[in-house]
Amino acid sequence: xxxxxxxxxxxxxxxxxxxxxxxxxxxxxxxxxxxxxxxxxxxxxxxxxxxxxxxxxxxxxxxxxxxxxxxxxxxxxxxxxxxxxxxxxxxxxxxxxxxxxxxxxxxxxxxxxxxxxxxxxxxxxxxxxxxxxxxxxxxxxxxxxxxxxxxxxxxxxxxxxxxxxxxxxxxxxxxxxxxxxxxxxxxxxxxxxxxxxxxxxxxxxxxxxxxxxxxxxxxxxxxxxxxxxxxxxxxxxxxxxxxxxxxxxxxxxxxxxxxxxxxxxxxxxxxxxxxxxxxxxxxxxxxxxxxxxxxxxxxxxxxxxxxxxxxxxxxxxxxxxxxxxxxxxxxxxxxxxxxxxxxxxxxxxxxxxxxxxxxxxxxxxxxxxxxxxxxxxxxxxxxxxxxxxxxxxxxxxxxxxxxxxxxxxxxxx
Length: 413
Known about the structure:
Strand content: 35-45%
Largest sheet: 8 strands, antiparallel
Shape: globular
Radius of gyration: 24 Å
Number of domains: 3
Distance between the termini: 46 Å
Strand order of the largest sheet: 1-2-3-4-8-7-6-5
Number of strands: 25
């Protein structure tokens, strides 16, 4: 689909003046999100998620009052927007940025960025894409006010760039699902991530992670689901299994995990119970219907056991993997000695793995170079007060609907 002045796809916002700006919230711990003001990303003056839907009073307290612009209607004069000069997307000079205030609610509902004088179009889109990923872009429909459009959706915010010839503007807003009823979603559902992938044909589809915003201070999403869409509401949806259906900062990747020639969707969320851990699910849409391939909470991961040995060494055993894996933990000698785990290189008492947690799930690669695999990274704790001691990377391959471990590597943190 090609963009027009009136938008690109059915699932996300379709009017540029109501579009959205993404936020880079990556790996901060859960408690930090709710207790502190997160740091600004390198490409924006503040986290867009934090600016949208906040009151002007909150915005002014964090950014200063700015230049107030008033408008008038039948009810009288009201605050229409607030202007700031801000630096975006690593540009050399700041640009005018308007924070539009919703009438009678006094909350920020959109940002407008003015690129004047207009940078060269391809260079501008390339620069923005370095921070926001691949856009949906193309020439506008005949008769539209703008010549060319591009939009990005990332981390719950949509960015809509419109090239009007002599100048360009970007409209930033929450990336709301445009037709939630088509996928049996709540009216308040938002698009948190978008990718383009060939899930059931050579033609690429739009792949979305959608859900309900669960916290005003943090990127918490609830009732998380996957949607794969062609166009005009012609798509399928799949609710994620608990606990992947609720978590912080959902991330989306696509790759052919099961080797059928079509790309699968990998969704990870940061746990609401442990800010260090993630939950993950992998879905195939190869037959134009969702099939759950991997669920980190449903025994998709093999059990890992392990013990510390004298001389600052650890040995690991992974179910289904024939070889024991040995790790030199001497880089952590001091905390191990301070915690009383070792004394002069000898174990004070037997110490085995107390707990493990999943920290990363991503496309993997087998020893033969086949990309049809899944790499799962786990952290292992052996003793109180020492933190995660060993990082374990498992490469899993799916054969006959079963996951098997084809490679295992471990290192000391």
